[in-house]
Write a structure and sequence with these properties.
It holds the Pfam family DUF7730. It comes from Paraphoma chrysanthemicola. This is DUF7730 domain-containing protein. The protein is α/β, with parallel strands linked by helices. It is 25% helix and 18% strand. Strands 2-1-3-4-5-6-7 form a 7-stranded mixed beta sheet, with no helix packed on it. The longest helix is centred in the last third of the chain and has 13 residues. The N and C termini lie far apart (59 Å).
């Protein structure tokens, strides 16, 4: 295989070791990596009944040292890594540096995060707990270490709150979103806010962060669809 041109070898590495959306989570104190059942992950919940075991051609990495040194980075650069704080025992995002070597973290190119702010680690009900600004700051700091990241998509939700997500963002959105200023690596950086009426006019500094509102289904005039 080493006799093939380098560009051809790189295409083989990407095809053999990449192309998956990988669910990263923490269960029983250990990292878990499963493949999403969709071609591109849109999950707000990692369903263990639907997830698939990873099926990369890792035998390629055992061919020889030259192949390993050329190919191993494609496990990180050629896959999408997906996280959700909803079921984590500990915030997986904060512990990526425990699970991956620094040089591997820098090779991650594509990440998607479903971030329910009222999950266990980011509960936002000001009537019950104070705003978890420390946890929020640690998570953004962890993201800032992904220096090779090119695409970052974050879905921010507040699905269990008994109050109004819009009012919550009016009170605390500026304090939270200023953390996005530290994320300057991704060329594509999108944050979907939790409510169609949330404010999107935040200062994100030199970051390329774009704040978007969730899509609202349009009513139909076709009586057959009612």
């Amino acid at each position: 295989m080493t006799k093939l041109p380098l560009e051809i070898r790189r295409m083989i590495y990407a095809r053999t070791l990449g192309g998956a959306s990988i669910h990263l989570a923490t269960y029983n104190g250990k990292p878990s990596a499963m493949e999403c059942w969709r071609d591109e992950c849109l999950c707000d919940y990692f369903d263990p009944l639907l997830e698939k075991k990873l099926s990369f051609g890792t035998g390629l990495l055992r061919t020889c040292r030259v192949i390993y040194s050329e190919a191993v980075e494609y496990l990180y650069s050629a896959n999408q890594f997906c996280l959700s704080t909803d079921r984590d025992e500990i915030p997986t995002l904060e512990h990526l540096s425990w699970y991956f070597l620094p040089q591997r973290l820098s090779q991650i190119r594509d990440m998607r995060i479903h971030w329910p702010l009222d999950s266990y680690h980011f509960f936002l009900s000001p009537d019950v707990f104070p705003m978890p600004q420390v946890a929020w700051a640690r998570s953004w700091e962890a993201l800032s270490r992904l220096t090779g990241l090119q695409r970052l998509h974050i879905d921010v939700t507040c699905r269990h709150l008994h109050g109004s997500p819009r009012e919550l963002w009016q009170e605390q959105g500026e304090e939270f979103m200023k953390m996005a200023r530290t994320i300057i690596a991704p060329r594509e950086f999108v944050v979907i806010l939790s409510d169609p009426e949330c404010e999107t006019d935040y200062d994100v500094g030199e970051s390329r962060c774009v704040l978007r509102l969730p899509e609202v289904p349009r009513p139909t005039d076709d009586p057959s669809l009612l």
